[in-house]
Amino acid sequence: MTRKSHTMAAVVAVGAAATLLLSGCAGEAGGNGRDIAFIQGLSGDEFYITMQCGIESAAKDAGATVNTQGPTKFDPTLQKPLVDSVVASRPAAILIAPTDAAAMRAPLRAAERAGIKVILVDTTLDDPSIGESRIASDNKGGGAEAFAAIRQLNPNGGKVLVMSTDPGVSTLDARVAGFQGAVEQDPKFSYLGVQYSHNDPAEAAKIMSAALSKDPDIVGVFAANLIAAEGTATGVRQASKQDQVKIVGFDAGPAQVDQLREGTVQALIAQEPATIGTDGVEQALAAIDGKPVTANIQTGFQVITAENVDTEGAKWIYKSSC
Ligand code: T6T
Q1: For residue 235, is it within any domain?
Q2: Whole-model pTM?
Q3: Does residue 132's CB lie within 6 angstroms of at least one atom of ligand 1?
């Protein structure tokens, strides 16, 4: 081969590599093939911030890189474009908390078709064929545990309701189902059903005061996530009913812990978001390396009360930065 034809071959090879980059083998565009995109359910939510801390620390230990982003609302119409642009950048893996079990199916299937490993952290999809691994709390068990806490706070029973965010969010739906299954077993309690506050604390506060006008004798509320719990507590306090209404909230954000300390909220069910994140990285790297992955991993929770918030409960409080 002449010197010139060598050069031609090199040009063809470079062209082929560029085509590969453009057509997008997973990992190629991001660099070392161990680049992970983390797409939160909601940016600024301390649950996902704490998860991000776990992800970043596990990735650093493993020599992987992480790029985190999240929508400004817990809303699939805002999360989908983020997924689409992440898919276009071809990371090796995506760790994601889908904001809706049905609406996020197609964008994540597209990610898998592009050769990206998809790991579901926290929330999941209604199609179990999507995703290499799912890592989440025992959300149904947590809902049942919330009822046990409400029963302990109200041994004589009474009217109780659930404050959720939106139907179609896998975690919240499972918590509501767990609570409902437990409350319906106890004839001392009258279950008023579930209210949807659209992950908006002001909306939860408004719904709570309307519920207390309609049923002034409500004795307990299970607020099924951090934001619903913050708003529920505000609504109960605005109605001056904090001595009568016992609130059990899911999650353990700093503002929720303040409400626990001041006595507006009686118990918090804290998840392990950092562990969900580190497990997510472990599964993502196993999938990238072609090693076996675990299809479903369940993480724990801890009930925090005023009695243990400064002792064994302290390490379960979520972070607002890493
Ligand atoms: O409760 C968490 C998370 O588990 C859920 O899926 C959505 O809401 C939170 O992020 C709390 O705001």
Answers
A1: yes
A2: 0.91
A3: no
